Amino acid sequence: MALMARRLVQLYVGLALYGLGIALQVSSGLGNDPWDVFHQGLSRQFGLSIGTWIVIAGALVMLLWIPLRQRPGLGTISNVVLVGVFADLFLYLLPDPHPLAIRWTYLVAAILVGGFATGCYIGAGFGAGPRDGLMTGLAARGHSIRVVRTGIELSVFVAGWLLGGTVGIGTLLYAVAIGPLAHVFIPALTVSPRPRPEETAGTPAERPEDAAPRPVPAGACQP
Fold first, then answer.
1. How many angstroms separate the CA atoms of 118 and 38, rounded?
2. By the number of CB atoms within 10 A of the CB, which of 135, 141, 147, 172 ranks highest?
């Protein structure tokens, strides 16, 4: 019960922090990550808030899971509903950064918070985000995960740029830094289940599977 409570807390803290990271990066005005270039472009062209478009896009992406036979988890549904809500909340609460030094502080904080948040929600083990699930679902059909991820992010980036989303140095820094940050935070924050008594009855030689490390959950950096 305590382990489940910790996983739930970690999941929802991670989603809240992910929304904070988005709000910090958008507020910096120095360039969004590819998906938020797209969300902001939609917001500027068609109205509605960035957070609302995050929710709508996440729900539409989940529809693509159906032919791929991907199964959402609690984390997937929570991700679709809450990340956009938290992004809008923090965009409303954060003071507008006018000096360039503060804008850079926002940007650096956004990338660090985003990396930590990724480790929280993936490490909680309640399922991948809708965009990550689309990537892994396509990869499971025999496509290179690197090619699939690059193709998806490049497509939304170009679409968002054409729609008027903010592209800049922050876009590049996010792309360069988020992978290494996730590589550090996902293993560090992965919650390992406690073994049941019967699972610890044998020696490592008798039960080699008990000694195998728990794999890092599949997923990338965009929820």
1. 20
2. 135
Ordered by start, the domain boundaries in the chain are 15-192
Separation between Cα atoms, residue 7 and residue 222, nearest integer Å:
19
Rounded Cα gap, residues 120 and 185, in angstroms: 8
Q: How confident is the model at residue 193 (pLDDT cuts 50, 70, 90)?
A: low
Which is nearest to 130 in space by CA: 60, 191, 179? Answer: 60
Percent of residues, the chain, with pLDDT higher than 90: 52
What does the buried/exposed string (b/e) look like for 49-82 if buried means 16 or more CB atoms within 10 Å of the residue's CB? bbbbbbbebbeebbeebeeeebebeebbbbbbeb
Question: pLDDT per residue over 98-125, tens digit each?
Answer: 899 999 999 999 999 999 998 898 888 8
**CB-based burial label for 22 (10 Å; 0-12, 13-18, 19+):** buried
**What Rg, from alpha-carbon coordinates, does the chain have?**
18
Contact 83, 73 (CB under 8 A): no
Asked whether 129 and 121 are in contact (CB, 8 A), the reply is yes
